[in-house]
What does this fold into?
Amino acid sequence: MNDYIIEMENITKEFPGVLANDRVTLQLRRGEVHALLGENGAGKSTLMSILFGLYQPDSGVIRKNGQVVQINNPNDANALKIGMVHQHFKLVEVFTVLENIFLGVEPVRLGVLKYHEARQHVIDLSQKYGLRVEPDARIEDITVGMQQRVEILKMLYRDNEILIFDEPTAVLTPQEIKELMATILELKAEGKSILFISHKLNEIMQVSDRCTVLRKGQYIGTVDVDQTSVEELSHMMVGRPIQLEQVKKVQNPGKVVLDVQDLVVPSKLHKNNAVRGVTFQVREGEIVCLAGVDGNGQSELVYALTGIEKPVAGSIRLKGQAITNASIRERSRHGVSHIPEDRHKYGLILDYSLADNLVLQRYWEPRFQHNGLINQEEVQIYAGTLITQYDIRAGQGAQTIVRSMSGGNQQKAIIAREIDKSPELLVAMQPTRGLDVGAVEYILTQLILQRDSGKAVLLVSFELEEVMNVSDRILVMYEGELVGEFNPQETSVEELGLYMAGARRNQMTGVDNMAESTGDDRKGRCS
It folds into this structure.
C-alpha cells in the first residue's frame, strides 16, 4: 500500500511577475505532521491553496492514496476529506461563530435546520480540543484570536482526515499555542495527516515529524525534524545565518510621550467595559510591552489610543497635548503611527496598488500632491525606495495589487509605511505576526532602532519570548486592567504567565496580591 496519503509532484504555479511554485514536490505520509517552512513569499500558501482547490496548478499532478485527483475547488477538497485553516480568515463577518462553522454543510432534517444540535456539536468540539469560542457572537465583534479558533473548528466540524494549518498560531497567545500544539498531536494520534505551515521554528521542532523547505518558490529539501536543528532550518529557509536574539544597548528613557489616565473603553461583546481605568506612560527611548492573553482588552486599548474606538472616560495625551477625541488623521499628523493586528481590516486597502497603500498616511503632504492632484511620479519613487529598504516582495513592484501579495509582504508594507513617518509614538500590535524568522529579525531590529533614536514604542505582543527579548518595561493586562509592571531582566516567562492568567495581581491594582499568599516575595509594580 502506498505510504503517502497525499503527493504533489512537480507543481508549478505562476502569477503575473511571480513564479510562486517552481516544480515543487511534497509528499505527506499517513498519520504524520509535516511542516512546510519558507520565507514570506516562498510559495507555501500558494502550494497549500492548490491542494485545497483555491488555485489550479499550471503543471504537475496531485495524488491521494496513489490515485491522481483533480481538485477544482474547495468543495472537491472537502469531498476528498481535505480541510484548511487559512492564514487570512475565510469568514462572513455578519454571521455568528456557529453559522460560519456549519456554513455549506448545514445540518437539516425535513428541510428544517437542526440549529441546537449543531450548536451542541460545536460546543463539544471546542471543549474537546480546548478551542474556546462564543457560538452566538458575530465574527465582526470577536478578537482575531477567536476568529482563528473558528477556522480550526470549521475544519474539525467537517471531520477532515487531511488537515492543512496555514500559520495557525500567528494570532494565538503562548497558552493558546501550547493548547494548539497538544491538539495537533492529539489529531495525529487519532490518525489525521497534518500539513503545518509555520515561521516559528520551535513549533516545527515540537510537533513535526518531517519538514519541507521552500525558498523563492523552489524546493530546497525535506528533513527529519529529529535529525536537524533550529539553526539548520533557518539557514535552509533564508540562505544565511540568523540572529535569533536581539541585542540592545542600555538607554535611559526621556520625557513622557504617551500619557494615559484612567482610560475606560466599552466592549462590543459584553456589558462590562473592555478597558477599565487603565493608567500608564510611555517615554522617549523606551519600548513598553503590553502582555496578556488575547481578549483581555488589549485590542480595545489600542483602538482607543489610535482613534479607531472612542473611550467613554479617561484621557490620552501625546507630549502634553490632549488627543482623546482627535481623529485618526490628527493623531497621525501629531506623530502617532499604528501597526494594527488585523492588516486587512485596519492596515491596507486590498484592491489598491502597493504604491497607493504606502502613501496612505502621507498623500496630502506637498511632496506627493499639488493643488489636490497626486504626483504619481513622486509616489512611485517613494514606493520603490521603501520596497527596496524593507525587502517587500511584489511581482509587479509598486503597481502590484496588495490583495495578491503574501501576508508577510503585506505586513512589511504596513511596517515600512508606519516607521518611515518617523513617529513620536509607534503603537505596534503583533507586528511580527505571520513573518518568517528573517523578517522577524529585521522588524524587531527596526523597533529597537526607533527606541534608540529617542522614539516611544508601545508594543502589544502575545509572544512572550519576543516580549522578554525587546522590551524595557512589561505591563500585564488582565480583564481590562493592568495587573503588574515588570523589568524583563528581573522576571521570568513563568511569572508573567501567572499574571496573564489572573493567578496573581499587584497590590497597586487595588485587589488582593495573590503573590503574597504563595510566599513569593518578588512583586511587580503598576504605573
About this structure: The chain has 18 helices and 24 strands. The radius of gyration is 23 Å. The chain has a mean pLDDT of 87. The CA atoms of residues 155 and 372 lie 49 Å apart.
